[in-house]
């Protein structure tokens, strides 16, 4: 290893993929829509207007006033991505071509998203709600000997949002709700370091975490017993992550440890929904959602030795449209169906190994079975079809005052995703 390369490498090596997250999430980029299963079967149409259970605290806090009982909702959504990475060119940490430098890799990136929602009536006007869910996140794992190992072997982003809320019911069918979001973020990543020789590769492991605070506010207008409209806004949340990077270089030197920090700006987003019931059996609903991804232009990672890594993201704002319906078969069974179009915020020129997100079409089905008067089970299934234009180029991040980078990966990626959900709703006080 030449002295100049090693000196540069020591300065910037560390959290190259600290925020290189790439589970092909249902929603755009690394935003997660799956905060309940009762809306899953309609492909999340009508989320801000349905107000069927305590999970409305996340989708429209004002919808809490539509509930009569103290209620607990628990469940989870299992995401089963099927990702195939076809590498046509890969280099070592220092830019030399790997031999061989092409091949097909299937990473492991299954994920389970837990959810919990609670609602309790305070009096005739006021409702309290609380949610613990996962609004953002991603995960991917590559084998230690895979071609992109000098870019990534493991990359995980986990968040938990704790959201207490209050809702108030005015006269004439209007309700308003608001609450605070206490969001915790944890990011981990591993990558190999070396010149192509697996026996002498080094390793870099990074971790960072912290809390951020935001808010949400929503409104619900019930025209009558059959028609209602809802709107919900979630604010931007900035998480000032702090952590450390431990690096073992591929030479006979002791491992080094240094601090890293970054300001991660999670975008604001808003949803407008409508619901209409034709009769006691049939109902339709729709969603129009917007996410302010345009503010996510760069991610700058700063180290305690005064060096920086700059990741140019250049996201654009994205929209989501979904329509769905429900059919009440009898007192025990309710069936759901829907379809969604979700626009990707990732420009084609910026699609890469870490965020290979593309436009999506998502058909879904679901059902609810009422076990007894107080308890209901919801089932949901969706399949995500991604746009086929999926070429990617993974340039390494650059350090301040230099254009020299680390590994580069080129090729194409194919994604599809299955999602399965199960939810239990318990009316504690019938």
How would you describe the overall organization of this protein?
The chain contains 2 helices and 22 strands. By secondary structure, it is mostly beta strands. It has a 14-stranded antiparallel barrel. β7 and β8 form a beta hairpin. The longest helix is centred in the first third of the chain and has 10 residues. The N terminus is likely disordered.
The chain-level structural class is: mainly beta
Shape: elongated
Rg, rounded, reads: 23 Å
Give the low-pLDDT segments. 1-24, 398-405
Could you give the order of the helices and strands?
HHEEEEEEEEEEEEEEEEEEEEEE
Mean pLDDT value: 84
Say what the CATH topology is: Porin
The number of distinct structural domains comes to 1
Question: Strand order within the widest sheet?
Answer: 1-3-4-6-7-8-9-12-13-16-17-18-19-22
CATH top level is Mainly Beta
Helix content: under 10%
Short structural description:
The chain has helices at 3-12, 56-59; strands spanning 71-90, 103-105, 111-121, 126-133, 137-141, 154-169, 174-193, 202-222, 227-234, 237-248, 256-266, 269-277, 282-291, 298-303, 308-312, 318-328, 333-342, 360-370, 375-386, 391-394, 398-399, 409-427. It is mainly beta and 430 residues long.
């Amino acid at each position: 290893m030449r002295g100049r390369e090693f000196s540069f490498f020591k300065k910037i090596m560390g959290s190259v993929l600290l925020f290189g997250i790439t589970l092909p999430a249902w929603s755009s980029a690394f935003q997660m829509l799956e905060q309940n299963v009762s809306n899953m079967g309609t492909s999340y149409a009508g989320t801000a207007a349905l107000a069927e259970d305590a999970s409305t605290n996340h989708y429209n806090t004002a919808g809490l006033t539509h509930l009569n009982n103290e209620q607990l909702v628990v469940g989870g959504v299992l995401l089963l991505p099927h990702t195939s990475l076809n590498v046509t060119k890969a280099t070592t940490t220092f830019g030399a071509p790997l031999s061989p430098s092409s091949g097909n890799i299937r990473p492991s990136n299954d994920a389970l998203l837990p959810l919990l929602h609670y609602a309790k009536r305070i009096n005739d006007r006021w409702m309290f709600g609380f949610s613990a869910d996962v609004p953002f996140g991603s995960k991917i794992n590559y084998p230690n000997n895979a071609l992109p190992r000098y870019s990534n072997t493991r990359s995980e982003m986990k968040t938990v949002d704790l959201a207490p809320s209050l809702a108030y019911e005015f006269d004439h069918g209007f309700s308003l709700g608001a609450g605070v979001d206490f969001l915790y973020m944890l990011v981990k990543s591993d990558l190999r370091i070396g010149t192509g020789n697996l026996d002498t590769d080094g390793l870099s492991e990074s971790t960072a975490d912290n809390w951020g605070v935001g808010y949400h506010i929503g409104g619900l207008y019930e025209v009558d017993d059959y028609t209602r409209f809802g709107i919900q806004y979630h604010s931007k949340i900035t998480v000032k992550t702090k952590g450390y990077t431990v690096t073992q270089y591929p030479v006979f030197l002791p491992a080094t440890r240094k601090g890293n920090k970054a300001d991660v700006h999670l975008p604001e987003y808003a949803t407008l929904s409508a619901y209409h019931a034709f009769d006691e059996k049939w109902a339709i609903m729709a969603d129009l959602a917007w996410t302010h991804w345009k503010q996510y232009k760069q991610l700058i990672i700063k180290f305690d030795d005064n060096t920086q890594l700059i990741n140019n993201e250049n996201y654009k704002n994205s929209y989501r449209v979904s329509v769905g319906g429900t059919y009440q078969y009898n007192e025990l069974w309710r069936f759901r169906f829907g379809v969604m179009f979700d626009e990707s915020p990732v420009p084609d020129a910026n699609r890469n190994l870490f965020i290979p997100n593309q436009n999506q079409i998502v058909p879904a089905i679901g059902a609810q079975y009422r076990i007894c008067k107080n308890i209901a089970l919801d089932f949901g299934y969706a399949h995500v079809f991604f746009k086929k234009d999926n070429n990617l180029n993974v340039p390494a991040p650059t350090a301040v005052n230099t254009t020299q980078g680390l590994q580069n990966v080129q090729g194409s990626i194919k994604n599809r995703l299955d999602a399965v959900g199960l939810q239990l709703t318990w009316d504690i006080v019938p």
